């Protein structure tokens, strides 16, 4: 499994809005684009997906932009990635539930792939936007000696 640029940029976008839109404030896509060095056009595609999924709210006007619909600790990284990447299954046969593979009864590797899928999902669902923001703050404070 490889996370695409869309998934990586979606996570960066959400973190930027969480960081700079504290207390429910709006963050302009232009500002995110400059800070994250991602084109506005690409961010517009991503923000549309995230808004449709209910993770972001668009606000019009001079002080408009985008804001989170929930607190950063309520967003799991897995939720953001699944919106942009789809299913995070490491192999195609695990994308359907129940498994539709004709070889599933005889597959000697199926249990391995299921275990890998479970580890991936537990990890991405066990980390929130708030966790990533706090890790960033900790790493920055450690560098001041």
Low-confidence stretches at least 5 residues in length (pLDDT < 50)?
none
**What fraction, in percent, of the residue positions are helical?**
40-55%
Proportion of strand residues:
5-15%
* Beta strands, count: 2
The radius of gyration over CA amounts to 18 Å
Q: What is the assembly state of the chains in this entry?
A: single chain
How confident overall, as mean pLDDT? 92
Global morphology: elongated
* Main sheet makeup: 2 strands, antiparallel
Write down the secondary-structure element order. HHHEEHHH
Task: Provide a short characterization of the protein structure.
With 145 residues, the chain is mainly alpha-helical. It is 52% helix and 6% strand. Strands 1-2 form a two-stranded antiparallel sheet.
Structural overview:
The chain is mainly α and 145 residues long. It has 6 helices and 2 strands. The protein starts with a helix and ends with a helix. The model has no long low-confidence stretch (mean pLDDT 92).
Please supply descriptive tags for the structure shown above.
6 helices, 145 residues, 2 strands, two-stranded antiparallel sheet, mainly alpha
Fold blueprint:
Layout: H1 5-20, H2 29-36, H3 40-52, E1 56-59, E2 65-68, H4 77-85, H5 110-125, H6 129-142
């Amino acid at each position: 499994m490889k996370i695409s640029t869309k998934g990586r940029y979606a996570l960066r976008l959400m973190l930027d809005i969480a960081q700079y839109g504290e207390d429910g404030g709006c963050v302009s896509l232009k500002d995110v684009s400059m800070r994250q060095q991602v084109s506005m056009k690409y961010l517009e595609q991503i923000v549309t997906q995230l808004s449709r999924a209910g993770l972001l709210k668009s606000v019009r006007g001079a002080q408009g932009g985008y804001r989170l619909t929930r607190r950063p600790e309520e967003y799991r990284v897995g939720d953001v990635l699944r919106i942009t990447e789809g299913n995070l299954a490491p192999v195609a046969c695990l994308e359907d539930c129940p498994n539709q593979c004709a070889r599933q009864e005889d597959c000697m590797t199926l249990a391995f792939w299921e275990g890998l899928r479970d580890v991936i999902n537990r990890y991405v669902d066990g980390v929130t936007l708030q966790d990533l923001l706090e890790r960033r703050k900790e790493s920055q404070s450690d560098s001041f000696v």
